[in-house]
From TrEMBL:
It comes from Hypericibacter adhaerens. This is Short-chain dehydrogenase. It comes from the Bacteria. One of its GO terms (molecular function) is oxidoreductase activity. Keywords: Oxidoreductase. CDD domains: SDR_c. Pfam families: adh_short_C2. InterPro entries: NAD(P)-bd_dom_sf, Sc_DH/Rdtase_CS, SDR_fam. Belongs to the short-chain dehydrogenases/reductases (SDR) family. PANTHER family: DEHYDROGENASES, SHORT CHAIN, OXIDOREDUCTASE UCPA.
Length: 244
């Protein structure tokens, strides 16, 4: 079974669909008020929907407990994926409140997910965690200090967690997508006054990625085929960062 946070988002839905097609039961976490329609359509059966704020510790222990209750105590796969982009502004104009909001969801949310899911996986001596970092987690981009800092922190958390649990049958990796056709990318492009046509010029593939291309990497990292892959980051960016 797979537990997915930010499951109502574009990448969450694509991943839930792929994992369900491959036979996984899905526990889907998103914030109260999120539009769950696309998720319900993508996963017509064996879906447990959980409203929870990933920045809240009690909500996090609660979504883990509800997942265990629904699926016989096990959590085989954890896609620790909820995230927000925050505003696009140079650092002098980026408010501390916005910075803290981005760090709360993207870093504290990921940390809390690890804190409560890892003990379940350690106890069962098996499990795969995939954290959503970003290409912004291994590079800079002007205007998104909070987002880039938060996604670098996700890579740090991934590496520490992998070292802590690698001898206990549990793997922790992160994914680092470049621009993906999505609500989030449209929001960032709009704030920058650009669009895919301009953004794609910087990508060797000359296009943005599809959410399904991210889902495919998550499903691979979750599978036994990735059994020797731990503590690593995985760019899905059409070659954009091959120059790094
Ligand atoms: N879209 C891209 O181009 C892209 C690129 C790199 C990385 N990412 C990362 O992938 C992840 C998914 O992105 P997406 O494109 O699907 O974005 P999205 O906005 O469509 O989905 C994110 C989901 O997280 C949920 N969420 C936000 N705050 C939450 C909270 N406090 N508690 C619970 N749920 C919360 C939202 O409701 C939303 O459903 C994010 O972490 C994002 O930073 C996205």
């Amino acid at each position: 079974m797979a537990l997915i946070t930010g499951a109502a988002g574009v990448i969450g839905v694509a991943t839930a669909r792929l994992m369900a097609e491959r036979g996984a039961k899905i526990a889907a976490v998103d914030r109260p008020g999120a539009d769950l329609g696309p998720l319900r359509e993508a996963v017509p059966r064996d879906l447990v929907l959980i409203e929870a704020d990933v920045t809240d510790e009690a909500s996090t222990s609660g979504y883990v407990a509800r997942t265990q209750a629904a699926f016989g105590g096990r959590i085989d796969i954890f896609f620790n994926n909820a995230g927000i982009e925050g505003p696009v502004r140079p650092i002098p104009d980026y408010s501390l409140a916005d910075f803290r909001r981005v760090m709360a969801v993207n870093v504290e949310g990921v940390f809390l997910g690890l804190k409560y899911v890892l003990p379940v996986m350690i106890a069962q001596r098996a499990g795969s965690v995939i954290n959503s970092s970003s290409a912004a987690g291994v590079s800079g981009s002007p205007g998104t200090s909070g987002y880039n800092a938060s996604k670098h922190a996700v890579l740090g958390l991934t590496r520490v967690a992998a070292l802590e649990v690698g001898d206990k049958g549990v793997r922790v990796n992160c994914i680092n997508p470049g621009p993906i056709r999505s609500r989030m990318m449209t929001s960032l492009d709009d704030a920058r006054g650009s669009g895919e046509a301009q953004g794609a010029l910087r990508i060797p593939a000359r296009r943005y990625g599809q959410p399904e291309e991210v889902a495919a990497m998550v499903a691979f990292l979750a599978s036994d085929e990735a059994g020797f892959i731990n503590g690593a980051y995985h760019l899905i960016d059409g070659g954009r960062h091959a120059t790094a």
